[in-house]
Amino acid sequence: MSVLKSVVLSAALIIGATAVHAKSYEKDVFRNQTLGIELPKPDGWRYVSAAEAYEEAQIMEEMGYKGAIASFQIPLVSMLKVGERPDELTPSLKVYALPYGPGCSIGCFDHARVLAAVLKVHRDSAHAFELVTEPVEVMVSGASASYGSYKHAMMSASGEMLDVQASVWVIPSDHYFLLAAGAATAASKAGTVADVERIVSAIKIRRAEDVQ
Amino acid sequence: MKLFKRVAMTLAIVAACSAAVAQATEREVFSSPTQGVELVKPEGWHFITIGDMVRSMEMTRLKTESLRQAASGSPASIAAGVAKYPEPYPGVNPSISIRVTPNTTFNGASPVDIMNVGLSVYPLMFDDVVVTQPARETELQGYPAAQAELTATAYLKDGTIMPLRTRMWIVMRDGNFVSISAGVRQDEANGTMEEVMAVLETLKVD
Fold first, then answer.
1. What does chain A look like in DSSP terms, one character per residue?
2. Does pTM surpass 0.90?
3. What is the average per-residue pLDDT within A78-106?
4. What's the domain count of chain A?
5. Domain containing A83 — which CATH number?
């Protein structure tokens, strides 16, 4: 399974389970100086650890989503809005840094095509998939990227069918691209995917021209 | 096994010729809550950027060229890299590289198992590889871990000779492992392993 497909599946499971263990470092800006990326963590949100993300994959596997563990990838950063109840499904975001692949660089990278492939994987794997926003070009951190959104239904850990709204971005950088996937349940009182979209729109990527 | 090799080779490359465009020279905390890693970059040290890593790979002559793609590693696992000197630096730059990799494919493997696979890859890339400290079990901040050390000689494409000394750790966590590599010149003329270890003292693995 390709890295991209693995990550897509993992990102598709983003709303799979609510993580409950608060972590100590809750800085309001996530920053990776080696990858040259930063994004805000709004008030009322918290980071999700790799261990929690893995726990989600385990729960999804138990719920019948075969391959959730085999396809598990560690997000560069994952966060979710803190709900009133520990088991509440709240808006969440996962951001992965992925390689362009053999022989490819930003020069030959077609972010629209990659997003279409991502959405196809989701269409094939999600229940009651409904495309809401056809892939469109957007600007993230001053450069061209692709965005699309969709709805689907999924069963919660308690067996309840939930309507989920999801947004996906493919954002090129000099030596890698970001796959950002956000989701929220339609019935959530904690927030919507608009909360996620605000975070993604504030991503800053340091590109070669920025450091010259 | 491929993933093991990729991780191992990436460690080797980064330790061999880490390159760092100066980003900031003040003391700065690197913190990656999802990856569960935190490190303090001391004043005067520099973050290694992914662009630096790519350039380093391009400059390095590998014994087995077919390994170049795998040796490049994936940005998906990068946590942090710091180096003593800004790049381009003419030689081995004392440095630390940290990666976090899912362990889903290799469940059951011990940290020592993973380290041994990594050690087996070095001779495919570099010359004069001597494992000075075979992989041994240890513990790092409460997690089961393995530690090893080796020396080797890397060559850049321009003929520059890079005598390396690399100390490595594999730290096993739930569903993933952290790979840490600390590299210096063998004669430690431009920075000692002790200096690098002092930076690593600030590492927190959550």
1. --HHHHHHHHHHTTTS-------S---SEEEETTTTEEEE--TTEEE--HHHHHHHHHHHHHTT-TTTTTT----SEEEEE--SSTT----EEEEEEE---TT--GGG--HHHHHHHHHHHHHHHSEEEEEEEEEEEEEETTEEEEEEEEEEEEE-TTS-EEEEEEEEEEEE-SS-EEEEEEEEETT-SS--HHHHHHHHHT-EE--HHHH-
2. no
3. 86
4. 1
5. 3.40.1000.10
